[in-house]
Each structure stands twice: as structure tokens, then as C-alpha cells.
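haha ok so turns out i had the wrong file open the whole time. this is the CORRECT one, sorry everyone. sequence first:
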Amino acid sequence: MKALEDNNLKIPDDISVVGIDDIPDAEKSSPSLTTIRVPAEEIGEIAGKKIIEMLFEEKNIIQKIELGTELMIRESSGPAKVN
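then structure:
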């Protein structure tokens, strides 16, 4: 975000910035960073179970697993400008 500001771009007036993982510093930055929160603990738990299944079961079934995310809207994002 500093590089954008150094180039005279105002966040979120000129450009929106969105991160991923919702790290603790996202809320502390200036402006506070809009992020996408992913369920890291749940991803790890499912991945661990799948690895164990692959090791101990003969069949290797490919699965699609979808987990929800959450958009944490903060100060670094705003509506698109209308020309």
C-alpha cells in the first residue's frame, strides 16, 4: 500500500486493495486492509485426514472439497468509480 501511496494513488479513493488470510496486522495497517479470511485450521484438518486415508486405504478417490470464506471489509476497499 505504501508503493501505491508513493505514486500518488489514494486508497480506497483511486484503488482498492484486498489481501488474503486476514493476518492480525491487516486490521492495524493504515488504512486497515480488507481481506479474505480462509479457514486455515479446517483446511489443515481435512488435509491431514485425507493424507491418512491415502496411506491406509487402497483406493485413492479424488474429491472436490469446498470451504467457505469470509470477506472482512475494512478501510482499504470501496465502491468502483463511475466515469
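Helices lie at 2-6, 25-28, 40-56.
again sry for the mixup
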